[in-house]
Amino acid sequence: MLLASLVEPSFGLIFWMTLTFLTVLFLLAKFAWKPILNGLKEREASIADALNEAKRAREEMASLNAKNEELMRAAREEREVLLKEARDIRDKEIAEAKGKAKAEADALLSRARIDIQNEKNAAIVEMKNQVAELSILVAERILRDKLDSSAAQQSLVDKVMAEAETRKS
Amino acid sequence: MSLKSLLRLASLMIGALLMGPVSAQHEGHEHGHEGHDHAHEHAVEAVAVAHDATHHEEAKGGFDAGQLIMGHIGDEHGWHLWGHTSLPLPIILYNSERGLSVFSSNRFDHGHKTYGGYALHDGHIVAVDDPDGTDAHHASINEELTQATWDISITKNVMSLLVSAALLLIIFISVAKAYTRRAGQAPTGLQNLMEPIVLFVRDDVAKSAIGEKHFMRFMPYLLTAFFFIFLNNLLGLVPIFPGGANLTGNIAVTLVLALLTFIIVTVNGNKHYWHHILAMPGVPGWVLAILTPVEILGMLLKPFVLMIRLFANITAGHIIALSFFSLIFVFGETSAGAGYGVAIGSWAFTVFMMCLELLVAFIQAYVFTFLSAMYIGAAVEEPHHH
Q: N or C: chain A end with fewer CB closer than 10 Å?
């Protein structure tokens, strides 16, 4: 009898099972499965969106980075060019300045040399004049000393006369 | 096409094989029934012997494994907890002669007494003509009135059904609340536990078997069926109240589930589906005369196999686990030492069986849901040109 009851579906249980299962099915469908499945779908959609967004952001970032890199490279190149130009200008200016300075210095030097020469010539002339003056002075003094007596003056005159005579003859 | 019809024939035969032992069990013990197929009798001989032994040993008061196992996997009025303690459950009966009768199963005094013109006879409620309190074993059964009586009592299985229904509602409505309260956020707690299973049913069962276009319509049924079967399979493994009822191993329960699948398939079957069943395209008329009945039989057999598979798997698991336990007491009766000795092995085997049953609990829930989804998928399949 018990074995038979195992394979013989009892009316009571069929009744309760149908009633309970359909009630549970209805309640769960309305209050559980709907929000759960919707929640899952929404979350999956939002995750997919977020992933896409992240991917796009990453791509954007990569392109930005590439752009930055490009800009940096260009800037570096420009800097190099500028620096080179500056160096060239500086070198040129230094060279020019050096040339100018040398020329000026040379000019100055030559002018100085001319001046020195002139001064030297003037000095020599002056010295010659002074020597002449001094010699005249000395000669005057000597003459004065030697011709302070009339006898001496007479002898000199005689001597000069004699010399003149000899020169005439 | 010939392969498909061959497969259908094969499934038909499997169905017949499954049916055999079932009907044999039925006949072996319902001696009043006619038209036996004795070829199948031996298939349940072991159980039958154990069960027959029941009657002989009952008088001697010895341990009766058959009675114990059948008591556990069957249904009962009142929920046996331990020893002589039972949880009384409401008995609800109706017939046109006596109207509606509602009373506690306690009134039957474990089947020893009659009450309200009814008595418990071998687990079934029968109508009797004796006054209340008569010894049920000597009561005169009113066969005619018994046949006319509808028994919708809250039995152990119905009680377990209500408990599991309540559990399902509590669990999933609270999980659903988590989805609305914490929309778009990562799952936590119970929600986290259930989500992979829900996703499994959605993606690997419904979507793969029914297809992208239609599967959402059938999700509520598939999810409910899956969790109902899974939860009750698990509750069946819990040996103490309120677990331990063999609900998914009860043919009435699997019958209702299979019938629902059948109704859903039949209601949702499109033109393409019916065309293939009633008149397989591209098949000559004389073959159709054979094929169409086979197809129709196959259509009916599908839910039948669904019903039997779940019932047989769960019941068999319970019988094996309980049999190992019974061995302890069977041997214990001959000598206490033997009982203790066998207990070690029995215990180990029962633990092993329990682990296996945990797996089976999931697999059977999955198989039932997946096959239901497959049948639904075949019913809503769009015609593809081949």
A: C
